[in-house]
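Standup notes, structure subgroup. Blocker cleared on the aspartic acid input:
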Amino acid sequence: MIVMKFGGTSVGDTARVRQVAAIIEAQPTPRAVVVSAATGVTNMLLDAARAAAVDGDELAAKLAAEIRSRHLEIAAAIGDDQERAAAVAALDQLHAAFDEALANVARAGDLSARNADRIVATGEKAMSILLAATLRSLGTPAVHVWADRVIATDNRHGNARPDRVQTRELASQEVRPHLNAGYTVVFTGFIGRAPDGSTTTLGRGGSDYSATLLGAALDADEVQIWTDVPGVLSADPRQVPDARVVPGISYDEAQELAHFGAKVLHPRTIRPAVSLGIPVRILSTFLPDKPGTLVTRDAPEDSVKAVTALNNLLLLTIDVPELEDLAAASAAVFGALHGDRIEVVAASQASSRRRMTYVVDATGHGSCSRVKQRMVAALEDAEVDAEVGCEEDVALVAAVGAGVAAAPQTLSQFLSVLGRVGVPVLSTNQQHSNVALTVAIPGRDAARAVLAVHDAFIRPQPASARSRRPRRSDMLAESLRVG
Ligand code: ADP
Ligand code: ASP
Ligand code: MG
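Run returned:
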């Protein structure tokens, strides 16, 4: 069986929902489909919830009405009268529950993560109703299933962690029988179920992760991620217009790419596929005949396949006066970061072994000075003498590809490219995975750095493949190439 996941842009409006239905119908059964909320709806739901919490009832009501009309517009295009009426009735119920949740938030004057999850799930739930009804009206037996009955998670609302064993059991009860009966199951991405039965979410962009979780729970033969680009590209096409499709990448490479900012895959997406060796394919809803990118255990080896940047990071430095204090200082700092659930994206040690550098994602934890204060307090508690530094607005640029870290010349080439375009390097990190090379740089230079590194390491496509004459910028890029 296959799992097909469609992201927000793929189901953004009536025409797109129809296009998605056609793509689904062209695939063999049994098949489960994972859907995101229509593009923009998750943000609108969150804005409405936040407004309700701070006396912004009018704004909340306006946003709720807009979301409702987006859903009703898609429902209006369902061809079959009965299906359309049933979908509208189901949406009415869903929106009534959403309105009630908003009223609760307004009364409490506070938005808990638990209430936010309940509210934000409305987007995926509505889309599952709409797509299943669209499929049925086209003659394809389909049923929607909500993941807050299936994807078992812990209770970390907003960023819940799944329990794969329990999810497998629930999927065999709640999803498998529909597949066996010949139905296409339309499943909500992004959401899960806490041990107390409340709705959780897997973090923004988490529907990709839902797809592989469901795929692993059902022993899928393949998971397909259908999106608005024709595969994993050699860079974010919004930053590098000449980025090209990478036909094959390994699980390791895909994980590093997602970890270091390639938004096309949620960072945790690949993990469930790895243990069962399930191939993951990234495909375009708008160019469905293109082969896309295939992610498997082994993939063609290439020095650098893609360049990414992760922005809005903090760079923490810990300096100790004596070599032997470094382990104790690191233990205190790691403990504090872990306690605050601040993710360490990269860590490196100075050759003098008296400085540790941590690049951290402290989104939601306040400014540099606040994070620094926490680290200073942790070091004081541990009675370690150390100095803490913190730099804001840092980006991590990563060159990803099997063997990249093993090739000794790659790091020097990487640094020389950055030097040539005048981007200062704050720290480097040659990873043991042999799959990624990362450098921390000032955030303001990230876009420039990605372009320069891409130009230097990714071979341009032959002019014939692009069916146009090489542009001056390509020739310039070629003349700057290294290696
Ligand atoms: P969806 O709504 O389908 O989940 P996303 O917006 O989350 O889609 O992810 C797709 C987007 O990821 C693309 O439109 C592209 O702008 C961005 N992106 C960033 N880096 C890459 C990359 N290396 N390859 C492909 N897309 C990328
Ligand atoms: N709708 C959710 C979000 O916008 C999940 C997803 O799109 O993957 O974050
Ligand atoms: Mg996404």
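Discussed briefly. Confidence is low (pLDDT under 50) at residues 465-483.
Next: hand off to the docking folks.
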